[in-house]
Design a protein that fits this description.
Layout lengths: L1 H8 L4 E3 L9 H6 L8 E2 L5 E2 L2 H10 L4 H5 L5 H26 L9 H21 L10 H16 L10 H11 L2 H6 L13 E3 L7
Helix pairs in contact: 1-3, 5-6, 5-7, 6-8
Pfam family, one: GST_C_2
Protein name: Glutathione s-transferase domain-containing protein
Organism: Shewanella decolorationis S12
Length: 208
Amino acid sequence: MRARLGLLLGQCQVEVREITLKAKPTEMLTISPKGTVPVLQLPTGEVIAESLEIMRWALTNTHSQAAQQLLGETPSAQNLIAELIAQNDVEFKPWLDKYKYADRYPEYTQVHYFAKASTFLERLEAQLEQHPHLIGPTLSLADFAIVPFIRQFTAVDAKRDLSVAFPHLINWLTRLTSSEIFLHAMEKYVIWQAGNTPTYLLGESISK
């Protein structure tokens, strides 16, 4: 989701090759032996195999000024974006995985993992009490890089109402996940096979 959102925001036309991890094609393993997704191969042959790096590449190499501004227009904005994404990836994501798959981590209860993960949600809620997006009045890389994980978190237990404890966060999540660009990123693709007619991911305009 991160990679697709970044490429859409950067209005990059790339060929999409949807794969199943249970049957990784040789073509993928040839360019990225570690066998994880996403993988972006540039025309130069360079390979980028981290979703956040794909996002940064797409936003840096776009002709869209609006897309470039998502990286942060001031050093303080750039630092806050980096800080929030790092906290998401390093602190929140491991707790999210344990909350999501609590039966695989019997050391503690799912309630415990929920509480640990909620620490990050509390910070996001505090940010969103101040402005409609994570770092200010307009969207940034932080919004798009973090929203897929918050979406995963809220989907673990559909019966749990998070809107009471995190009203601003849930409103933010609803706005982003119902946006045209997010819905485009969520589109399903036919599993790729050699010889298939190429399928392209086309860029969308950015909604402020």
